[in-house]
Specification:
323 residues, 6-stranded mixed sheet, 10 helices, 56% helix
Length: 323
């Protein structure tokens, strides 16, 4: 009797265990099936958009574009656990319609690799979007970004960058409730391996009114920023902040030269201004590297050396800050 009882208990345990396995597997299959279904939907919308664009049927092409963006918005909201209010794939100028070959996403066979690159595998984009979006929450920094800004209105932009390294760009930007500030983060994913390129993504904090941008690639600074209650502030110690402020002045000068070059009348004036703008761009990059990578880092010292070889000594004001 005792033996029979033990056998019955064992059978029940096995049955429960087997049922649990089936339940877990069914959930896994359900998730995979959902992702597969989403991938097929995006692929079909992209195919129809290509047909309509080739037929020069702007109205039907626009309909497919809206379908694609609406479907991606739904997938992204679930995968990223954020309030995705806008998903963009058609990056044409909204008024003129000019300027974008981003959508529909071209077949991989149509992509021409950059001339300075060795051949590499290139794959299609639409069916990979659900897989890529699902991966981001596994990245610690994005998980923090998602948690901090989950309630804010967020925009997702997807750009085809396959000619470079078979990459697709995912840019995620969220705005403060008053609309005065924005926080952005971006990932680049290989279309064939589905691997995220960045070991550590950049964080961008922008003041909308004057378009002032503060970006960081420093892991400690980004983590500290995402832990602050302030919407998007990258904390710096006084010395690095002084370098950052100097970099902002250089950026303003660069923009002034750009505006002046547009109004210049002679080719020689334009050339001189663009040369100066190139110098200022290099100098601005040096300040960014000092703030984010440190003065003594190899990349910073290499960039300073290149600047000196091309433009001469660093400005006195920057030398004083460094010393």
């Amino acid at each position: 009797m005792k033996t029979t009882f033990l056998i019955i208990v064992g059978v029940i345990i096995m049955a429960v265990g087997f049922s649990t396995i089936l339940f877990l597997e069914s959930n896994i299959f359900f998730e995979n099936d959902t992702m597969r279904s989403d991938a097929e939907t995006l692929d079909e919308i992209n195919r129809q958009a290509t047909i309509q664009k080739n037929n020069n049927n702007q109205e039907k092409f626009y309909e497919q574009t809206m379908l694609m963006e609406e479907k991606i918005k739904q997938i992204a909201s679930d995968s990223l656990e954020m309030n995705i209010t806008i998903a963009l794939v058609d990056l044409s100028d909204p008024e003129t319609g000019i300027g974008s070959d981003n959508f529909p996403f071209r077949n991989s066979s149509e992509i021409e690799i950059s001339k300075d690159k060795e051949p590499f595998p290139i794959c299609d984009i639409p069916e990979k979007i659900p897989i890529h979006l699902k991966k981001f929450l596994d990245e610690p920094i994005f998980a923090m970004f998602s948690k901090k800004y989950s309630d804010q209105n967020t925009e997702l932009v997807i750009m085809d960058e396959r000619p470079g390294e078979s990459l697709v760009h995912y840019g995620i930007t969220t705005k403060s409730e008053d609309g005065l500030f924005s926080a952005s983060i971006a990932f680049h994913v290989n279309t064939c391996t589905d691997e995220i390129k960045e070991n550590f993504p950049l964080l961008f904090c922008r003041t909308v009114e004057n378009n002032e941008m503060h970006q960081s690639s420093n892991q400690d600074d980004i983590v500290a920023s995402l832990q602050l209650e302030e919407f998007c502030t990258i904390p710096l110690d006084p010395w690095r902040n002084s370098i950052h402020e100097f970099g902002k002045k250089i950026q303003e000068k660069k923009l002034e030269f750009f505006d002046a070059s547009i109004e210049s009348e002679t080719h020689e004036e334009v050339r001189k201004m663009w040369d100066e703008r190139e110098r200022l761009s290099s100098l601005r990059h040096i300040t960014f590297l000092i703030v984010n990578s440190g003065l003594e880092s190899d990349i910073t010292q290499k960039t300073i050396k290149e600047y000196k070889e091309k433009f001469g000594s660093l400005p006195d004001e920057l030398l004083e800050l460094i010393e």
